[in-house]
Amino acid sequence: MVFSSLTFLFAYLPLTLLVYFLAPLKWRNLVLLAVSLVFYGWGEPVYITIMVLSILIDYTHGLLVEKYRADDKKARRFVAQSVVFNLLLLGFFKYWDFLADNLFLLTGLNLPASLTLLGVTIHLRNIPLPIGISFFTFQTMSYTIDVYRRDAPVQRNIVNFGAFVTMFPQLIAGPIVKYKTVAEDLDHRANTAEDFALGACRFCVGLAKKVLLANSIGAQWDAQLAAQRAGELTVAGGWMGLLAFGFQIYFDFSGYSDMAIGLGRIFGFHFNENFDYPYLSASVTEFWRRWHMSLTSWFREYLYIPLGGNRGGTAKTLRNILIVWFCTGFWHGASWNFILWGLYFAGWLILEKYVLKGVLAKTPAWVKHLYTLIVVFVGWGIFAMEDLSVCGAYLTNCFGGAPLWSALDGYTLRSYAVTFLVLIVASTDLGKRCWQRLPQRVRQVLTPILMLLALIVSTAYLVDGSYNPFLYFRF
Fold this sequence. Notes:
By secondary structure, the chain is mainly α. It is about 70% helix and about 0% strand.
């Protein structure tokens, strides 16, 4: 179940809100845990057992870390056990097929597709990926680390901890919420009318971004990819396709993050922001400070800094950047194109840090902005195409390996000109700045009208259309 579905909007969410706000304050974490498990098990009920196991393992290891804090060696051992468990869980479900396939290609060794234990057959290949596993394993893994570091208090109430792990607003696609961010809200939150109103507005904004903007351009990327496979892609068509995918993934994912942050606010939680107008960036380094900020900060805090960060000289810094971005790419998916995508950005970040820093400082702002967008949108091409041969041919065509223009490109550009213009403006902070200049009284009057309009129009599009993909659902 995704947020931009009629089932969620008009069945699950209203019932959840009704039960939650009718429950006494002391029972609301239990209600949140129960409804989140229903949400998680909607598509694959069997995976609720994995979620419960993850809760039990990390809850008990947090207690063990706290109990044996005086014995640092033993406390570190429990932290390590928690980390290993989460990585094994993620590795088996997300990467086992990838590792098995590549092991066969390299060595000819064919790992078994199933095992039989005590008369029970356990399938090991082509297992459906539990939704949100990349997100909730990172969240629970950071919990025991933060307890060990004294960055977060240990949670002794298993219901409260379970509510944190399963919290449906951010369960399947983030933002990645660290326990220390919501520890106070879990134990002592107040559900206010102001939070509800602000959260509902944020949710409607995210829904509109997803349904009205992301969905409106996604088909254009599919069309250009089909043109590539048919041998009909032009330079102009290739770049229109990259722009289409870049806008689709931004409004899809940032819209979902807005919905998650808004839902969290409705229930009394204050999640960190996940996007900050990344397409306004004037460097690749700045882009990654603005895009999927919860993931970037997670890798910085729990991998880059523990590896040594930029301490220890240039060689170690380069090593740490490459490790972090290899992991960032691989985190997104079990495919070589994601690894290549991570290393691609690692290369640009290294170039900006050691080669281009002085050059960029002297470069006009519009040139820096254009350079950043080209690098980023080419990166989206690598991200989007798992078949590296298709990816290579597509990007080759974008850089002159095909005719420059066709009559079909002219028709496409005329058809999508207004859509592209709206997407460009919406990806900047222009709308926000104009809104803030309005008198407060005007904003108070317009807000409920615009939010209701966004909900009505988005619902109409969902009822009328069948194109409603969610790109980050598979991660």
